[in-house]
Design a protein that fits this description.
two-stranded antiparallel ribbon; 8 strands; about 30% strand; signal
Length: about 190
């Protein structure tokens, strides 16, 4: 990802407090809730998705059964098709220029958002111990858009249908109309860009 996308969460931090006033603090791992960051800079649309694995595959443990392996592979395949998943308007002429879908469940050795078993024990003395392993799935996308002015809205309905355990997407957007933070749900799945 480009440097600008790495700074996106920090640039939008003030919006989080406004968009999530129903939460006293930002929960780094909340089942049913995922974070979606979008930034349009010129002809490039950067999208970052962070979600507990539970929302996307229904479990957070390493996949050992054939059923779990199939579920994990299907979720990864869907996450690797962002134009379908995120309802990007065809008129915007966007194509995927890069993507990365990461999780310890996919065998990634390092993953910033995962709290593996050893990590939990290391933090037990500080009161940060979790009852079980918490694994996240993160996806980063860079889309090249020939007509970015046609990105008036993004329909997340397909995302909610594909991943029904996700009840809320906390979206943070930087676009032509400035910055905004909104909470999307299956009933209100359209993001105005």
């Amino acid at each position: 990802m480009r440097t600008s996308s790495l700074l996106l969460p920090f640039a939008l931090l003030p919006l989080l407090a406004v968009a999530h006033d129903d939460h006293a603090s930002l929960a780094p791992h909340e089942h049913g809730v995922a974070t979606l960051n979008l930034a349009l800079e010129g002809n490039t649309l950067e999208i970052e998705l962070e979600s507990p694995a539970m929302n996307l595959v229904g479990f957070e443990h390493p996949a050992t059964s054939e059923a779990d392996k199939a579920t994990l592979a299907a979720a990864r395949a869907q996450l690797e098709r962002p134009l379908e998943l995120f309802g990007i308007p065809a008129a915007a002429g966007c194509s995927v220029s890069s993507l990365a879908v990461k999780s310890p469940l996919f065998g990634d050795a390092t993953h910033d958002h995962d709290h593996d078993h050893d990590h939990d024990h290391d933090h037990a003395a500080s009161g940060e111990h979790h009852e079980h392993v918490h694994s996240d799935i993160d996806a980063d996308y860079s889309l090249a858009c020939t007509h970015p002015g046609s990105l008036g809205q993004v329909d997340l309905g397909a995302f909610f249908k594909r991943f029904p355990a996700t009840h809320t997407l906390r979206a943070q957007v930087i676009g032509p109309k400035g910055q905004q933070g909104v909470s999307l749900t299956p009933a209100e799945a359209t993001l105005q860009f």
